[in-house]
Automatic annotation (TrEMBL):
Gene3D superfamilies: Winged helix-like DNA-binding domain superfamily/Winged helix DNA-binding domain. It comes from the Bacteria. Transmembrane segments: none annotated. One of its GO terms (molecular function) is DNA binding. This is RNA polymerase ECF-type sigma factor, possible FecI. SUPFAM superfamilies: Sigma3 and sigma4 domains of RNA polymerase sigma factors (SSF88659). It comes from Nitrobacter winogradskyi (strain ATCC 25391 / DSM 10237 / CIP 104748 / NCIMB 11846 / Nb-255). Signal peptide: none annotated.
Length: 53
């Protein structure tokens, strides 16, 4: 998983920050946060599929 996607995922899921808070902290647009979350979740789904096959 790309480092930025991992960072966004951790901030949102484990530190309970909103997309707006993450965007402010990282200096990126809120839409970019959403895009990174989509990529991170897609990556995790793919890895789980591989592991269960």
């Amino acid at each position: 998983m790309p480092p930025r996607c991992r960072e966004v995922l951790i901030l949102h899921k484990f530190e309970s920050l909103s997309y707006a808070q993450i965007a402010d902290r990282l200096g990126i647009a809120k839409n970019s946060v959403a895009a990174h979350m989509v990529k991170a979740i897609s990556h995790l789904r793919s890895r789980f599929r591989e592991a269960s096959a």
